[in-house]
């Protein structure tokens, strides 16, 4: 992955300010995967996107992610570290974007849902049926074509299992034992919103740095953003010493 420059990242943040969370997630994914066409990104399997975002997080802010969570039972504040690199490696599925279920005369091909599919399905009156209809590639029983709406529940369940096995990162669930009461708290980790929060804090700090350096040295914003973080830090320390 290419490490994006400060000016480019700041532009991504600025564009994201006006966006809803889904738009921000897409902007982050674009930053993570500049090699992929923008129209293809929303149809990549959800787990692949999560792996991409964890890899971006590692590239921008390092491996160690601090997560805070309140115990659901006693309310104890729990703080722990996660390894972004490990998620980036483990969440990517075995590859391919279509799963195939063959059982009891059934032969079903199903595309792994992307963010675009989940968003569209969520807007429908029956999200499960809508997702099934959107992502079904082909379905046949004993050679005869069957429509998505006519798939029996056990076959639907087999498809869901196959999707989960092929795209394990689609749902990142943490299971944390409370050090106070011992109860386990389950929580979903939304890497897109986690990373956005970090990017937002980073951008606001950077703008303050630009302000301080511009005031002290009379440099322009592009000049200051072109400095390496190390040099920027060094000049800021010199300003503070005066
Ligand atoms: Zn507890």
From TrEMBL:
* Pfam families with a match to the protein in the record: T4_baseplate
InterPro entries reported for this sequence: Baseplate_phage_T4-like
Protein name, entry field: Phage baseplate protein
Q: What is the lineage of its organism?
A: Bacteria, Bacillati, Actinomycetota, Actinomycetes, Kitasatosporales
